[in-house]
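Q: Focus on the shape:
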Amino acid sequence: MGYPHVRHLAEGISGWEASGAPIEKGGADLIPLEAHPGQTSSPGEPGAAPSAPSGTVGRMSRARHSAPRASNDLVARVLERIAGTTFTRLLGVWLAIVVGCGLLYWAIDLMAGTDLREAGSGVPATLEGLLTAIYFSFVTATSIGFGDVVPLGAARVIAVFEGASGLLIFGAIISKLVSKRQEDLIEETHRIAYEARLGRIRTNLHLVLSELQTMSSDCGPGGLTPEKMLPRLESAAMVFSGELQSIHDLLYRPQLIPEEPVLEALLANLAAGMGALDEILVEFPQLRERSGMLESRVASISGLANEICGECVPRDYAPELKEWMDKVQGLAGQLVAHRAG
């Protein structure tokens, strides 16, 4: 850092403060000096380093660190740029480096004399020599290095550059091939999981609709009493609320967009289930008063369904689907209106 006479203070920062020496404060990026055996002195002793002006150490240490940080940022940007390049472009760049360096070897040989040697003799600046130079370039870029052709003079510098850049880009090409296969497998896994999710939603909505219709038909004289109906209705409302949340996510945060016939079937089952639920709650309004869980589930169902309409969802769907969405929103309004009534 430009200070030739620096010593280690054995007493540490407490001894420095006790001597009345100045202390740099204010968040400066200071670097503590490491102790060296046998190098001890106090501020007043001969050979002790004079204190730096206020702020100088912080500025010098920040400047000392700025160069490595800038270098690291540059390397990171280069690697990120390479990683974001397409496979075809990377392969083209790699081939261009290989052929370009081969032509450069041959051009140096043509202008300045022999720069490549094969079997103890110089490679001639002929067409055969050009092929040998390109062959040596491929061997260098792939780090094979058979040793049958060796560089001389300036060609060594080019060979070092080509070997480093060729390995970097070739490694990125291999990584692209592997990542492409991984992306295909992940996409297939997501597709299978997505289809399984749609199947689960369809099945659960069908079961909930069957359960609600069964309860509605069995709630007459001699059938289910409100006390026996309440646990079944709570369970059905909980499942129904969860599947409605899934349909809501399909419409508002779609990772994959289901086909319109599939979505139409889901919305139709959803509307039928909400209609059956509304009939039971109209027939037995006391059930919502007895069960806080049922009331919260019904409120969740009405809130989610109220956000499903032809003009609410981000995407533009067919008119038939928009009609089903508007119907779902209308049934949500009925649930709220009957609760208020």
